[in-house]
Every structure is written in structure tokens, then in C-alpha cells.
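Subject — a protein and its fold
Fields — amino acid sequence, C-alpha cells
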Amino acid sequence: MSTLTVEATTLVAKEEISLLKFPKEDILISNEEKKDRQAKLERALKLGNAYHGKVKIMFEDIEGLKAVETTIWGVTDKNILLKRDVLVPVNRIREIKF
């Protein structure tokens, strides 16, 4: 039997993200989870560039779980790029919801 832990998520505006502090370590442990995250980021990037479609990005800073609903404009090995040059470290992204 498994248990589900539900954490409180704070919805933030993308303009507030540049003020947040991010730890260096990855929040995902397994390589499978990391590959899944990368595939979802690539899909979200295509959605954003082709259709200006928004996704919900769940990520963690030093204070806890946060979420932002926005369009992903770019993806690198280390960061995702949102509008107005806002960056979110890939290793702090827990989930992308379409």
C-alpha cells in the first residue's frame, strides 16, 4: 500500500521567479524521472513556440513547492527560459502539466 503526500503549492507570477533562491541539487532522483522531465520540457517548448500554449510548471526553491502557469520559450541543459528572460533551473523542476 502506498501513501500519497500532498504538499502545499504556492502559485507565483513569472515576474517573481527572478527573486527566488534555488538550491543546486536535483529534486528528482532516478534517471527515469529526469528523462521524463526532459521529454516534457521539450514537448512544452514545442507547444509554446508553435501555439504560445501555456503549461503549469511545478518547481522547488529554498522555501518549498511553487507553481507558475506560463509559456516556455527556451530549454537548455541547465535552465528553461520564460518570457522576459526569466530562468528556472531544470534541476528544480518537479513536474510539467499540460
Summary: The longest helix spans residues 31-51. Strands lie at 10-11, 55-60, 65-70, 72-75, 79-82, 86-89, 93-97.
